[in-house]
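Might you be able to review the protein record set out just below?
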Amino acid sequence: MRYILISAGLLSSTLLKAQVKQDSTKQEDIQEVMLVGKKPTIESKADRTVFNVANSSILTGNTTWDVLRMTPLVNIDNNDNVQAEGSSVTVYINDRKSVFTGKELKEYLKTIAADNLMKIEVITTPSAKYETSGAVINIVLKKNDNEGLKGSVSMNNSQSYKNSQSSSLNLNYHRKKFTQSFSGSFSNTNNVMKAYNENLIYADNSLTKITSETNSNWKSASASSSSEYELNDKNNIGLVMEYYESDLSSVSDARGDYFLNNILQKFYTKTVNGEGKNSFVGSNIFYKYYDKEKSKILDLNAGINYEGSDNTSIHSTLWSAAPFEGIKTIADNQNREYYLKLDYSQPIGKNGDQLEFGGKTNFRNNVMPYHYFNFQNNIWTADDSRINTFRYLENLNSVYANFSKTYFKKLETRIGLRYEYINFTVKQEVGSIERKDSYGTLMPDLLLKYSFNENYNLTATYKHSLWRPWYIEFNPFLMPTDNGTFRRGNMYLEPNPNDRFGLKLGLYKKYFISANYSTTNQDYWSSYAVEGDQTIIMPMTYYGRINNYSLYANTNQNFLKNKLNVNFNLGVSYVDNSDFKERNNFVGMKAHITNFSGSSNFSYTNLFNKNINLNGWVGLHSQNWGNSMGNKMNVFHSFGATKIFPKTQMEAGIRFNNIFQRPGNDITTYSPIGTFRSVNKWDWYGVNLSFVKRFGNQKVKENTKTNVEKDSGSAK
């Protein structure tokens, strides 16, 4: 960390001195100065923080996933789960809820070139309109507004532990009332993951130490098409189509040593060869009515999403004192989703009050068959005791309403209420094990913003949320993992209700301080069980009060005639886990936890007046959640340079990711039966070279027709 700070300091001082000198030597050549207003890199609003990245050099050589990592207030854990200010996140793309989560979301966003980004909104207090149980991250893509054909082609080459390549194409055609956008990409990604695990069981004081290395190759392709036709000044229709496919091949090697009272008893070596294909096809047909004069908006959406995966894994295990063990698993999953959604908003009265309401009905039909084979007498024999099919059926209906009103031009208010009713069935076909459940939930939210004057404002927020288990977390089938342990779901998981209160103070439109309090009395986290020689990880609903207190500070500053933009974020949170720890007998876990986080983005435009843009990012955070505690602070860094060639509309860039310290995590999960430590080294490091060729007029606008969004976030 010290070397990173020293290097950043030397670089900053060199740039400042060099640019001051360059500006002074070129002063006599300046004939005219034209000031162009632009949005700051970071905008802090009442309910959200906006990361404006359009036309920023931070995009060069990055994917959308990489830029998401660099977004203020965002933290991504070792399981690729996205969090904002420590709370769970639902990801939207152009105001449409993404069907991907976890590692699937990561792989999908890695296929979207960052050059296509307009901004990323981190909405920490979303209104009742959003389908979410926590914060919202809305990824907004660019949309061209000018006549004719325009677009870009980009190519990237990354060198970390191994070499990876990617390329993308973006096209946009606009002619009078018709707009057609298309984007496509292909990537060949090679990844190396190194891991170390320690599983300590209290009952017999046994300790298993596992080292593993996984080499993976992802060949991924994605394409999206957006067609929109303007029937007249107030009515639009359109169709959005999305496609994603990935072919995965991987080889994992692991060794496990089993100790009893610190004496080695036995060991095993394991090799897993995996291959699979994942595909996704999504469609959304929409109708929009937008009366600009009266600010009335009606938005109708209907869609079908299909996701399929076909994966085969061969597990070969050799014990020091046991015969060879071979297991083959085959999965062929089919997931279908159908939905219909309506949103409407309009002003009420003559004082700018706003009413918004809507609803959605959603159906899921997921079938997940698993086949097991044992290697016996040199042939694969079906294991009928473990072959099974898991089914998940869901119908989720929701309605919401938001009302916004301003009193005496100083107090902005938004009150919202959302009601959701879910009816679902989880079923294991063999044995006819089935669970049917249904329940309704009211989720109110409130926002109050008082402006003392143009330099001081204070915002108070409240939101009640409910986080539901993802369908795959219900799957009860026992599955071997790459390192010798096993994993299964839990059909009896319960949802996690939580309440969040917040205060945000804005000073001089540059400084923002926020204090938050969130609480819950139940949640589901990882648990462990030992059955014979098998160590099994599974989710379990734990009961007990958890109180989280946090404080964040943010500022965005411009220097050197707005050429240098710097953003700083600092955060600290205090978690009271005492009741949670005591009720679940988490021996050794801290009852009170302090987490720190911080990040800084900087960008420098037109270095030496040579069309060279520089940018950098440093982020640090401690990872603690539920019954899993981080043993070290994670530090990330990235910096790069982009050379722009205006006449040919070309860009060339170089980026360095985590070259001073390879990132990773060191986490201990506490359980009533023992402690389980996991150490990983991630492959997000090295150097990236990129090339971008643009053509046509690149003027863009945000990909939305609503312009009624206010600082209070009432329109969202």
Observations:
- The first strand starts at residue 42 and ends at 44.
